[in-house]
Amino acid sequence: MSDKPSDGHPSASDIPDDVWEQFTRDTERDIRGSAPKEPSARARMVTERLRLQEERGEVPPGWRTGPVPPESNRRAGRRRTLWTVLGVAVAVTVAVVALKPSLLPGDPFGTGESGAGEASSLPAETAAPTSAPGASDPETPTLDKPFAGSPALRWADGEAGIVLPEAKAVGAVSKDRVEQALKLTKKLLVAANLDPATVRGERPEAALDVLDPKQPGLLDNLNTALRSPSDKHDPLTMFSRFDPDEIRPVGDVIKTRGRMTFEKGSHAGVAVRADYTFVYPVMRADGSTEVTRTIVRRVLDVELADPTRYRVTEGRLTVREYDEEVGNSACDVHDGYLHPEFPSNRDKGTDPTGPTTDPYDRSKVLDDGAPCGTVTRT
């Protein structure tokens, strides 16, 4: 009898044993996790023969273990394991966020919870504002949040708030000369209002070094004011200073906002106008944790004159005019220091005679000689 069926296809008995063995080795690992299937008679016969070979120690390599996976398969396995671990972590995170959405930064679900997002910083001021800043949340400043409830919360920190305009030539004055004047003006503002030594009442040497010693009377008047402050000679007209025996700064940040412009000067140089407001959070030096703020606005007109045509010192500024306005400092005290008032110790029996002003309103022109009044906010 022929071993070949009538349809012309080979029967299982015609397939060599080594082919069946290879087939079994290649497919065992793939079918191990699938639903069990009844093997054919030929497959059972080969499997039984391989089992007997295993008992005699004649099992071919890879029979029970399967072929060694190539390197690419091992890498893929590690990726799958990693994604599984990440998947578990993501699931846990989703569950936590579902219970407390405020844990996500920026309050993406619009829960409106307090502190859901930090106030965004304002862009640099490039022109005079048309009105005062809008109302802020009525929060009380604390040691941890000294600018809470203040428009200055969105202002730049310290020196970062003094952004110089792009220098350009002005008439015969070169671009480099204009840039020098702008940098000197910034140096003066920083040294007079932001330098920690100046703010704690020390002599502002760095600021004085920017001023031209040949300008008649200026340095003499400032030195007199620093040495023997009085109503006539008041260092606060140029410098921001607190008495260290009375006041301590809260943190190391002073908020700053303003702008700087330039034009052709009257002494063959470049004239610079600086208009900046500084906000100082402070506390008492006696250990009290009550926090308040003093706000100082300064308008300063200086010129870097041409030393080849005028009797000036190269690299020093000539001050043409300077003015200031202070919010939240005791009136009629002329000892050379700012004296902020705290909500807990304001004298309720004394009513200021001056106008009520918003110290954050940078849209107004400073009123020279205005009487001491009341600030609407600090």
Task: Describe the model.
Residues 116-125 have a biased composition (Low complexity). Keywords: Membrane, Transmembrane, Transmembrane helix. Residues 1-76, 103-151, 334-378 are annotated as: Disordered. Residues 23-32, 39-58, 334-350 have a biased composition (Basic and acidic residues). The chain crosses the membrane at residues 81-99. The protein is of the alpha+beta class. The chain has 3 domains: 14-55, no CATH class; 71-102; 151-375, no CATH class. Helix content is 25%, strand content 15%. The protein contains 7 helices and 8 strands. The protein has helices at residues 17-31, 41-55, 71-99, 175-193, 196-199, 205-208, 218-227; strands at residues 156-157, 247-249, 255-264, 270-284, 291-304, 318-327, 356-357, 374-375. Strands 1, 2, 3, 4, 5 and 6 form a 6-stranded antiparallel sheet that branches. It has a two-stranded parallel ribbon with strand order 7-8. Strand 4 and strand 5 form a beta hairpin. Helix 1 (17-31) crosses helix 2. The protein is extended and about 115 Å long. Mean pLDDT is 79; it is low at 1-6 and 59-117.
